[in-house]
């Protein structure tokens, strides 16, 4: 399975929150924003910080998808 953070970026748009504001509220670096945009792995600690700062649940910011290799029907 793969993960996507599209829901997070939609939530940020809906709330008018910029990447810089999220970084400040959650207390992480620009590297985390890059990882989010690329749908890369984040630690649970980072996900918890995002949820706490946005006052939302995990399922509000991420969802699991099939990875390209899982979608194959060999």
Instruction: Please identify, by name, the CATH architecture.
Output: Orthogonal Bundle
The CATH topology, please? 434 Repressor (Amino-terminal Domain)
Poorly predicted regions are none
Number of spatially distinct domains: 1
Share of β-strand residues: 5-15%
Question: Can you put this structure into words, describing what you see?
Answer:
- This protein is mainly α and 74 residues long.
- Helices cover 50% and strands 8% of the residues.
- It contains four helices and two strands; from the N terminus they run βααααβ.
- The protein has helices at 6-15, 19-26, 30-37, 44-54; strands at 2-4, 63-65.
- The protein has a two-stranded antiparallel sheet with strand order 1-2.
- 9% of the residues are buried.
- The model has no long low-confidence stretch (mean pLDDT 91).
SSE order and pairing:
Layout lengths: L1 E3 L1 H10 L3 H8 L3 H8 L6 H11 L8 E3 L9
Antiparallel strand pairs: 1-2
Task: Provide a short characterization of the protein structure.
The protein has helices at 6-15, 19-26, 30-37, 44-54; strands at 2-4, 63-65.
Key descriptive features of the protein:
74 residues, mainly alpha, 434 Repressor (Amino-terminal Domain), two-stranded antiparallel sheet
């Amino acid at each position: 399975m793969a993960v996507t953070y599209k829901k997070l970026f939609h939530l940020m748009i809906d709330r008018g929150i910029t990447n810089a504001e999220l970084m400040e509220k959650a207390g992480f670096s620009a590297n985390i924003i890059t990882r989010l945009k690329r749908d890369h792995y984040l630690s649970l600690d980072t996900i918890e910080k995002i949820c706490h700062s946005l006052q939302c649940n995990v399922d509000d910011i991420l969802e699991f998808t099939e990875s390209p290799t899982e979608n194959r029907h060999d």
